[in-house]
Structure formats: structure tokens, C-alpha cells
Amino acid sequence: MHNIGGYQGIERFIASGQPYHTQHIQPILQKQQLSQVLDGSIAGVEENTKGTNQAIMERISKSHKEDIMKLAESISPQPNQKSKKNYHSEQWENNYRILIKFYKREGHTQVLEQHIEDGRKLGVWLIYQRQRKKIGKLTKNYERRLEDVGVMWEIFSERWEINYRLLVKFQKREGHANVPQRHTEENVKLGMWLKKQRQRKKIGKLDKGSEKKLEDIGVVWNIFFNEWESKYQLLLKFLKREGHSYVPLTHNEDSIMLGRWLEYQRILKKEKKLDKNFERKLEDVGVL
User: Fold this and answer.
1) pLDDT tens per residue across span 18-46
2) Cys-Cys crosslink for 253: which of 109, 131, 258, 284, Cβ 3.0 to 4.6 Å?
3) Three-state secondary structure along the chain?
């Protein structure tokens, strides 16, 4: 009887070219999870026989069948479970190392859901870790290690931080934080998100910490006030250059119809609809 026990034994047996049939060795492959390694060898042997399944069966000796079946029956499922556990542990460690790499480069672990790092769906993996923690299936060791690099478990907090970092990026690039409503940044509708923050502030649902962080980078809560102020700055620019504030009706300043805007302010004042603060500022520069 042939001694073909163990992983290396299976490899030697197949490599020897001795006749066999896949239906007899398949239980071994399934139990030891060697299919990815051995499929190529099996295909090669079968191709070399150049015969039908029936012809192959006729070449299999009784002793070979007994050896293979005995080996299949002798393999317990325990090594399988251990191998599967080791595999998942190894995959977790690989993804965690990639998360550390992301953290060192970006300075945070707010990974976008669609983000791929080194060919791995890191954002999706991080969402899965949150799901496992939520149902109590994430080990304390994994939980602690993720928290050590700043992973947040609450999705809302995580999403807010991601969008805030995109806003900071926009502010550094553009010089202001007045994001147009339709603007998207890295596939995120940043303009709509900022609009929602203003709405939350208006109804008192934006926490003070978030409010301060937004104000620190120049977010203006009153859009109308912000637009008025930007046009007023153009008026000051005109005044400094021309020495007066008598802007012609058709005059454009930096592609803004400053003359038309100034005429509208006069109309609002006449109708007593102009904010008193705005009225005072215009009078200070000789308007009205």
C-alpha cells in the first residue's frame, strides 16, 4: 500500500503521474482546502491520460482507491477550521497595515467607502468592522487597535469628519469656504452638505463643536450677508482705485455688475428695506 498521507504526500502522489480519478481525490481537496494549489496538477494529469473518464477508471487500481479514500476519511475537520481562522486573521492584519499606511499619509482614518488602497477596498472593510462591533462580534483586541488609530464607530460622526476634511481641502485650494451649492469634491456633494450644516445651525441642531470648527475655516452662516459683503469689498476696491464711490450703472467690477448692485441698494433704502448696518456701511464710503 502506498504511503500518501499529509499535504506533501498528496503533492508527490499527483506529481508521480499514477492513475487516479478526481472523484476520489476531491474529498481530500475539499477537506484540506488545497484546490487552488492542486487544480493545475489535476488538470495536467488528466490531460496527459488522453482518455475518457471510463478509460481512466479502468487504470485505477484497487489499492490506489483504498489509499486515497483512507486518507480522505482520516482527515479531521479541525485543521480546516484552524486554517480558515488563520486565513481571516492574516487578511485582517493585511488590511490593518494598509489602514496604518493610510493614516500615516493622511493624518486620519476617515476612509471614504469607495476608497481603494493597494488594490483593497479599505473603506468597505472599515464599514464591515463597524458592523461586527455593533453586533458584538469584533474582538476586543481588534477594537482597541482600530481605536488607537482614531477609528470612529458612529457612522454619522465619521461621515461628518470626512466631509469636513474635504471642506478644509476646498478652503485651502480656493482661499474661502463658500462652497457653491452644486459643487462636488471627490464625488461628495460638498455644497449640499454645507447647506445642510447651515440649516442645522438655524434650527439649533448643530452642536457647538462642529459650529466652531466650521467657523474656524471661514464658513459664513448667512449666505445673503456673505454675498452682500463680497460686493461691498468690490465697492471698496473701486473707491480705492477711482477715489470716489460714484459707480456708473453699467460698470462691472471683477465680472460683477457693481453699478446695478449699488442702484438696487438705493432702491431698498428708499423703500426702507435696507438693513441698517448695510445702510451705515454704504454711507461711510459716500454712497446714498
Assistant:
1) 554 445 555 544 444 433 333 333 333 33
2) 258
3) CCCCCCHHHHHHHHHCCCCCCHHHHHHHHHHHCCHHHHHHHHHHHHHHHCCCHHHHHHHCCHHHHHHHHHHHHHCCCHHHHHHHHHHHHHHHHHHHHHHHHHHHHHCCCCCCCCCCECCECHHHHHHHHHHHHHCCCCCHHHHHHHHHCCCCCCHHHHHHHHHHHHHHHHHHHHCCCCCCCCCCECCECHHHHHHHHHHHHHCCCCCHHHHHHHHHCCCCCCHHHHHHHHHHHHHHHHHHHHCCCCCCCCCCECCECHHHHHHHHHHHHHCCCCCHHHHHHHHHCCCC
pLDDT band, very low/low/confident/very high, at 98 (cuts 50, 70, 90): very high
Residue-averaged pLDDT of the chain? 76
Domain positions in the chain: 7-75, 80-148, 155-216, 224-284
